[in-house]
Amino acid sequence: SKKDFKNKIHICKKEINETKYWLQLIEKTNPEKKETIKPLKDETQELTLIFSKIAGTMSKSQVE
Q: Lower Cβ count inside 10 Å, N or C end of the chain?
């Protein structure tokens, strides 16, 4: 259902934010890992944009 899908997207966004937090924590405590972590942080940013766009599109379609 649309409601279930919207909920799953919300969960994805929360999980991405948690992943960002842990990557930042690892980066701060292990500066030597910065180059290893950078692609992962970039990926979380891309996923954030994707899921935010999906959520925004869903909200728009519900208003119309």
A: C
